Amino acid sequence: MIFGNDVQINDFVHIAAAEHVEIGNNVLIAGKVFISDICHGNYSDSEKISDPYEHPKDRKLSAKPVIIHDDVWIGEMVSVLPGVEIGRGAIIGANSVVTKSVPEYSIVAGNPAKIIKRFDFESMEWKRC
């Protein structure tokens, strides 16, 4: 695990790092957030997948790095799953499940999290997508 400067982590945050979780500078993590780079088994198309008849506890752990860049705000009760990269200045809405990487300067929310706004540097305002 790598932590940048001025990271604020609130109550009941659970970070599971089997291989690599990186949190940048000036990151705010609200309470009850779950961040993990590991999973019991492999369910992607790119590698040998786990057998559904195998007991979950016996499945080989798989890990994919989680990277949270600078100036990110993660809301209450968010889950960040393996392989996710959260871009600089992004905001993750409360109760979201982040299953895919988040572009910089965007706001995502929901389950699964989807982009709802992006910051427009020309007009200097958050615009709906």
Overview of the molecule:
The chain has strands at 2-3, 8-9, 14-16, 21-23, 28-29, 34-36, 38-40, 61-63, 66-68, 73-74, 79-80, 85-86, 91-92, 97-98, 106-110, 113-120, 125-128. It is mostly beta strands and 129 residues long. Strand 15 (106-110) and strand 16 (113-120) form a beta hairpin. The protein is globular.
Proportion of residues in extended strands: 35-45%
Query: Per the principal axes of the C-alpha atoms, what is the gross shape?
Result: globular
DSSP, total strands: 17
The Rg value, from CA coordinates, equals: 16 Å
What is the helical fraction, as a range of percent?
under 10%
Count of alpha and pi helical runs: 0
Placed side by side, the strands forming the largest sheet appear as: 2-5-10-13-15-16-17
How far from one another are the termini? Answer: 33 Å
- Flag low-confidence runs: none
Q: In this structure, how is the largest beta sheet organized?
A: 7 strands, mixed
- The average pLDDT score comes to 94
Order of helices and strands: EEEEEEEEEEEEEEEEE
Structural class: mainly beta
Key terms:
seven-stranded mixed sheet, mainly beta, globular, 129 residues, 0% helix
